[in-house]
Amino acid sequence: MTRFTSGFTRWIEQRLLHDDPDDLTEAIGFLARAEGLSPDMADHVATITGTMASDVIAAYQADNTEWAGTQATFDRPDLTALDDHLDTVAYCRHPA
Q1: Per-position DSSP letters for 10-64, written without gaps between them
Q2: For residues 56 and 44, what is the distance between their CA atoms, to the nearest angstrom?
Q3: DSSP element (H, E) containing 64
C-alpha cells in the first residue's frame, strides 16, 4: 500500500516532537487535502510539532498552492489530449 504524502505531511514529520511519524500524520495530511484544515486540526498539529497554529496554517496553505499549480498543469487541454493518446497507444500495444 502506498503511503499518502504531501508537502504538508512532510512538514509535519520534520517537526514532530517524537521520533517516528505514525499513521495519524498521514491521516491528518490526507484529511487536510480532502476536507480542509479545521481550526481544531491546526491546533492539534501545532501541539504535536511544537509550533504555532499560524505556522501550521501557513505550511498547509503553501502546500495547497503548490498542489493546485501541479493540478492545473496536468489539466491543460494539450496534456489531457496527450494523455488520452498515450492511453490509446498503450492499449493498442497491450490490450487488457
Answers
A1: HHHHHH-SSSS--HHHHHHHHHHHHH---HHHHHHHHHHHTS-HHHHHHHHHHHH
A2: 10
A3: helix 53-74
Distance CA 5, CA 34 (A): 13
- CB atoms closer than 10 angstroms to residue 45: 27
The residue type at 45: V
91: how many CB neighbours lie within 10 A of its CB?
10
pLDDT in tens, 38-69: 999 999 999 989 999 999 999 999 998 888 88
What is the amino acid identity at position 84? Answer: D
Q: Which amino acid is at 95?
A: P
Residues 6+ apart with CB under 8 A from 64: 8, 33
